[in-house]
Amino acid sequence: MMKSKLKSSIVLSMLAGSLVLTSCGDNKKEKDDASDPMQHEMHQEAEDMDHAKETEKSMVEFKNDTIQEVYKQYLTMKDALVKSDHVGVQEAADKIVAAYGEAAKDNGIALRAKRFSDVSNIHEQRDIFSSLTKALEPVLKEAISDGKIYKQYCPMAFGGKGDYWYSDSEQIRNPYFGDKMLKCGRVEETIM
Known about the structure:
Layout: H1 2-21, H2 28-35, H3 37-57, E1 61-62, H4 65-82, H5 86-100, H6 108-114, H7 122-143, E2 144-146, E3 149-154, H8 157-160, E4 163-167, E5 186-191
Antiparallel strand pairs: 1-2, 3-4, 3-5
């Protein structure tokens, strides 16, 4: 009886330990990479090249040019958030507004994109990005004509509430945490 309880405790401990190791937080490999900045940069460059190759292969087409441009700028914004580049986020947001032209004043997506203009705090930008993502979902689903969009999810975003974003690649590049938890997330849905 005692041996059975001991075995159960050991199994439960091992299970709990494996869950901790597979969570979205930093793992040992990432910590090892961070200890040598040059090695981290080379590793990051290789990942960026892989992402660029994968992005080239997964071009998405939409039924109209406006949504095509909006999605392109959304991806640029997502990538800028991954790099914590607040200026790049603002530039992409301005291009989203410009894509709607005169209709921008009455368009929910353009109105959300306009909110980036005066915000340089990356955390506030990530908040607005969440709102923009929610507004884009029905538009993307309705307008896609060819290719795939990956709806991705991070359970750790916004204090554990979790949140979504869209990508043209299955590869996870988390816009809510950037390099702190670059690969935290999973593909929740594939939109075709």
